[in-house]
Amino acid sequence: MLLSYLIENKADKKKLVMKLKQLESSMSSGRKMFRLGNMVHALVAARRAAELPEVVPRLCLTASHLSRALYLVCDAVLWLRSVGLRPHLDKPKWHTWATKCYYCSLLMNLARDWYEISWRLEQAALEEKTKENSVWQKHSEELNGVKSDGLHSFLCQLFQILKRNPPLLLDLVKNLCDLSGPLDTLGIYKTNPGVIGFCGILSSLVGILTLASPHLKLKQ
Q1: Model pLDDT for residues 155-193, shown as the tens digit of each residue
Q2: Which of 33, 92, 98, 217 counts the most CB atoms within 10 A of its CB?
Q3: DSSP of 184-202, one letter per residue?
Q4: Which of 153, 69, 140, 77 is nearest to 105 (CA)?
């Protein structure tokens, strides 16, 4: 997708662009077929998430996995149409449903990421309060999200937290990158195939990294 976007305006590359788009379509159909078993994995993950002790991660991750399972069901239906088993299926409708389910799953993942970030910000403020042993007024200001120091201080603390927690940083980056596709498809924030392709590459690299180094994967 990214390559075809970069060269689509070059007159001597039109045949190559067509081949790249055909390859993209073929790979999309193949990906749908290979993901058929992921529905079971998503349901098992939802059941495990429902047993988490903390309320917010439990709700966010359970909703995320169930939404992903629904997305994969819609994706499987679209695959049946692409291979000719259900030729009269309403493709735009099922594609929209699939995108909405995927979008919901990503939002729940981002909500969980923000919960983790907020919890760590609060812990950092409490640690700073204990070390400095300052007056009560300053303590309360720090616990209210470092409002007294302004946006710059908040961003510095956020940077330090993400720097000290690579799994959280990678999960946040991956979810934000994955969000570009649904936002464009649903018309919420239109981009272009180049941006979507680049975000897809970055998301895939993060996914490969967390598979190669499991300690970099955010614990569910």
Answers
A1: 888 999 999 999 999 999 999 999 999 999 999 999 998
A2: 98
A3: HHTTSS---HHHHHHHHHH
A4: 69
Q: Is the pTM of this model over 0.85?
A: no
| Distance separating alpha carbons of residues 105 and 196, to the nearest angstrom | 18
The token pair that represents 1 in the structure block:
């997708």
Separation in Å, CA 181 to CA 73, 171, 186, 198: 18, 17, 9, 11
Q: What is the DSSP string of 133-180?
A: ---HHHHHHHHTTSGGGHHHHHHHHHHHHHHH-HHHHHHHHHHHHHTH
- CA angle 102–189–71, rounded 5-degree value: 10
Half-sphere exposure in the Cβ direction for 119 (13 Å, CA) = 11
Domain layout of the chain by residue ranges:
23-108, 162-219
